[in-house]
Structures
1.
Amino acid sequence: MHALPWLPRAANPEPPDRLFPELLGTVAHQAMIRDGITFRVHADLTIPADVAVTPELRLASLAVLVPSRCVVGRQAALWVHTGAHEPARVAVLVGPRVRRPDPHPGRTTHECELTDADVVAFGDVRATSVQRTGLDLARWFPAHEALELLAPLCDTGFDADSALRTLDSLGGYAGVRDARSTLARIASRQGLAARITGARIAEAHVSRAQADQARVSRVRVDQARITGCLAALAPVSR
């Protein structure tokens, strides 16, 4: 039996952009990953292969390990923001006097104070901001590891100078001295990069100004030649 041509057809539903084994079945879920139809973000969360991985999707893939009272932090937050250095275990942060989540092999829990400015939300899950993430990495990882971890975060907007100023209010807390040394090295690199960029911009402005001046000079010479030719032809014209 065929539908009559004048009957309205229901629009095809949009395919989901977040796929879990519960939706597809375990066998189909694994087969689609193997065949390149979907891409694994983390754990069981997969997305269609033509969908870009975003911080929101990376954070959503951690949701099962992050109770609503917790915030994703440290290396896990770095991965959320940049996609680099995916952690083996997810670090979650809880405030003082907040009940810690139950132990889990895929999760570590740390207690710390967080302000509203320290936290960003992607959907229903929260993570530390780029700036707070960088500060925590500098404090809680050895210098050589912190430098490696912070490199991709700098490309996402982490400001080492600002982080150093924040450390001034944390004197005496754990990890502050090592963090200051690490952040000073990064701030020096960022300052050098900024100076090089500024010098290149200045050179470009000078080159552009010189090119404009040369163009104006050529125009004036051409105008003078035209004026001279007209003056020479004037007696003949009369």
Note: The radius of gyration is 30 Å.
2.
Amino acid sequence: MDRLYVVVSIVLSGLVLLGIKMMSSPRTAVNGNRLSALAMFTAILLTLWNNGILTVPLLWAAMAVGAAFGLTLGLRVKMIQMPQMVALLNGFGGAASALVSMMEVMDKYHQMATFNKLSGQLGLIVGGVTFSGSMIAAAKLDRRMTQMPVHLPNHNFWANLSIVAMFGLGIATLFFDTAVVPLSVLVLILSNIYGVLFAIRVGGADMPITISLLNSFSGLAGSIVGFTISDPLLIALGAIVGASGLILTQIMCRAMNRSLAHVLSGAIAKPSSKPKTQDEAPEAPAEPAAPVPAAEALQAPEEQAEDPFPAGRMLREAKRVIIVPGYGMAIAQAQQHVKRLMDALEAKGTEVKFAIHPVA
């Protein structure tokens, strides 16, 4: 392998890491995104050059189509649709990894070492799960299917069976060389089935965490395919994406006070209630209070003996207020209400600041 290729690969990986580091601050996030994008584009050119296909017109035409599609998608998508777009991009990354693995298996399987054969099957599995799971996540967030967790009959059984089957068939390709292509196709089908079973039982509110995890999977799939084709640049960049996605997933779980297993199981926290004895009469349901905008609650008279709006009282007494917008505010289109609340607070001399929630 060309030493220059390895050296430049290390430099580009470092630039991607630097770009991710810059994205941690709002002041440098835009430049960090541009730096990472430039490094990735350079990595594509480096890969084409290293394989002697830099001047193939068909590849440039394909990249032009992809660039036009990505640019159009990026310009037309609304900010509240950004999670759906990220899910789609994760799915495309997983599909690309699965396709590369399949092409390697179909073309060079008999010349590959055992490690590369296994990594090829693993690339099919992770890539397929990432693709189908991301498509379900995008559909849920875009409300093209129910956002409630979907649990099929014997859901865990079928999910576990698909895991055992796809790994078993992947290992079986080592012993049945003549049937490697149909076995690999079955592995790819089963991985997509598991991706669906994996994603449909996650509720819409927890989908940002799932998308972050699938983002990690897309990087992991790319890194695995890098082992399949023995490409250190793909291994490094895929590992960076996989690790950063996993770290972000952990941060989001802590921010939501949820465990990853709890999120992926589709469990919904239920409020605990004190068990009633037979002697206790059932309580009459309380009349629900009419919703009052925050700005009106802020202006409620302070002479009132019992303030029915404790949040409004706290806001009236506060000298500094930090508002943390989240995905729920975007979905509810409540930006104008938050702006009116900010204006009302500032009119009475309260200092108002905005913070960024890790999930948002």
Note: Strands lie at 320-323, 351-354.
